[in-house]
Structure formats: C-alpha cells, structure tokens
Amino acid sequence: MCTATLNMFDFPENLTFHIGKYVSDLVDWLTVNCSGFFDAIKSGLLWLLINFNDFLVWVPWWFFILTIFLLACQYKSVTSGIVFAVFLFLIGIFGYWDMTMFTLAIVVASVVISLIIGIPLGVLMAYNKRFEIIAKPLLDAMQTMPTFVYLIPAIFFFGLGLVPGVLSTIIYALPPVMRLTNLAIRGVPDEVVEAGLSFGSSKWQLLKKVQIPQALPTIMAGINQTTMMALAMVVVASMVGVEGLGLEVLTALNQIDVAKGFEAGLSIVFLAIIIDRLTLAISEKSQRRI
Prior knowledge:
By secondary structure, the protein is mostly helical.
C-alpha cells in the first residue's frame, strides 16, 4: 500500500528526456561552422571597446571632472555639478580612476550597440503588429531571466573574458529601449499623425519629423534605463573575467576585504548616480523644449 502510494507521487523514471545533449550538439556545430562570424563579432567588439577606453584614459582626469561639472550645471544645477565633481574626485583618491574609465568604456560601448539595435527594432515594433507580438514574449523572457544566465550562451561561443561580458551586457540592456521606443511611437496622438499625413509626408518623413520628436522624451527615458541596466550587468560580468570596478568588488568578496569592497562598491554607486541623474536631466530638458 505504501509502495503504491509512493508510485503515485513519484514521476515515472522511464519518462525522461534530456534536451541538453541537443543544445550541446548545436553549440558545437555553430562553433565549428560559424567560427568566422563569431571571430568578426569578437574583433568588432574589442576594437570598439579598446578605442572607447583609450579615449577615456587619454582625457586628463581634471578635464573629465570639469566636463561632468559643466554638463551638470547646464542640465541640472551648480550644486549637482559640485557633488558630481566631488564624487569623481573621491573615485580618483580611492585609486580606481583607470578602472572606472574602463567600466565606463564598457557601459558606453554596450549602450551604443544596444541603441543601434534597440531603437530601430522598437520603431519596427510600433509599425508592425506581428513583429510586436513575436518580440514582446522575447523581451519578457530577457527581462525576467536571472542575470547570471546571460553569461552562459556568450561563454559557449566566446569563452571567458571581455567579449562575453560585453555581449551579455548588450542583451541585458536591450529590452528597455525597445519597449519604450515602441510605446513612445504608439503614444504619439493620432491628430498629430493625421496632420503630418495631411501635409503629404511620406512614412519616413512622418517618422523623422513628427513621431520621433514627439516620442523623444520617452525614448530618452528608455536610454536612461538601458544605461543603468548596462552598468548593473557590468558588475555581474566580472564573474567571467571582465576587468573594472566589478572585478574589484568580486575580488574583495572572495578575499573578505571589507575596505576594498567598500571603496570599489562606493565608486560604482557614484558612477551610477552621475549617469542616472545626468541622463534623466537631459531627458527632462529635451521634454520641456518640445
């Protein structure tokens, strides 16, 4: 009786199916037959990242701080400019200036690629209902999936190092700008669209001169979210060997080095505050101009 009861609750052992073997075979096939494609992606990403990093390291630290101060004064306030300048100065005092520039280079490269891919796809979602129906579940999956999972497919094709970290960051940061671009284009009032059409605008002219300017504040909000998600993922990407502030935090955790962890973590917080406040301020100012 007891055995029968157990059998009713235990899943039958003969009903097993493992999909992992087929995924492994697919990865092996792609690695062998598409090596040129993956090498091209790897070379392109490394070129972009190295150039961004070289530029940021080439800029004198005081000029970088002055630029952020002036941007904050222009788009927020003098007080914000002073606070941001102090934050950056503290990062330099902690000894993390070069690592901060490297982290910033990864974020900038990832965000640029995310925007190049995400904004056109968001526009396509707004214009094509079928594409939106297909894309939305994929975006849901991308946003609900644990961040560590993003590292797995990238490691399969590119191994450990910088490239899988950047690719994971791009995939993780892509959904917000796609969603908000779609939402922004669809949110343009019908009266405005009809007015544009009544003046004989083509679809491209309507998009470029009417819909994009009207949707710009919401698109800027998407860019802000994409930037913040890229910064968050850069820290996680340190688990596959991506250098920068994230790797310093990971090393501090492994060594239980509270001082190092606090300073590196605080530097990331400072960087996140500056990026978030500046991009939001630019977004709000662009909204007021419309």
